[in-house]
Amino acid sequence: MTTDDWLTDTRTSYDTVAVSYADQVRDAIAGHQYLRAALALFTDSVRATGGGPVADVGCGPGHVTAHLNKLGLDAFGIDLSPGMIDTARRDHPGLRFEVGSMTDLDLPAASVAGLLAWQSLIHIPDDEVPTALGHFHRALRPGGSLQLLFHVGDEPQLKTEGYGGHPMKVHVHRRQPDKVATWLRDAGFEVEAQMLLNPDTKASQAFLFARRRP
């Protein structure tokens, strides 16, 4: 599968489910103390280095971007799916959202104080992850904060249906935290912490907290 193929499939899939997905996740952060805690830690980390713009890459319908703004950050969202961006703008009209891809991230060098990618790197094939992390590193200021959230596992899964029963064709790459941490170090990041959610279940997820090396 070429880069254009999986990007097109991912974009089309999330265009199809955008409204249903927004309805499903609208209250996800409010109802999950560990998600709120992770975003609070990210906010504190950004402020500790002087603050500044924050990019939510793979923002979906914008609920995480909106929460970061409520915490006082100057956060904006980027997503591959125009449908998701339309939904984000509808639900959060006062915030900035743009269509874009983390594999070709259109942000100036050292332009953001923090970058967050929740459940978006999961759709990037292994051989494209270094490209995405390279863009993250370039866009972040020296010392800037990075937070990743992803599914834990060893095997990719092809998702053919989701969020309201709509058809999808999107690969979900489940990865071990140590593997992702190695990629981060190779890309020029210092890994500061990791946190597992639901570690005893098949739905386990991992946070990695990292910082661009000064």
What can you tell me about this protein's structure?
The chain is built from six helices and nine strands. The chain is 36% helix and 29% strand. The strands form two sheets. The chain has a seven-stranded mixed beta sheet with strand order 3-2-1-4-5-9-8, sandwiched between helices. It has a two-stranded antiparallel sheet with strand order 6-7. The chain has one domain: Vaccinia Virus protein VP39 (Rossmann fold, 3-Layer(aba) Sandwich). It has 214 residues and is an alpha/beta fold.
Instruction: Characterize the largest beta sheet: strand count, sense, and whether it forms a barrel.
Output: 7 strands, mixed
CATH fold description: Rossmann fold
Structural class: alpha/beta
Number of domains: 1
Shape descriptor reads globular
Concise overview:
The protein has 214 residues and is of the alpha/beta class. It has six helices and nine strands; from the N terminus they run ααβαβαββαβββαββ. The protein has helices at residues 3-25, 33-48, 63-70, 82-91, 129-139, 177-186, and strands spanning 53-57, 74-79, 97-99, 112-118, 140-151, 157-162, 166-172, 189-197, 205-212.
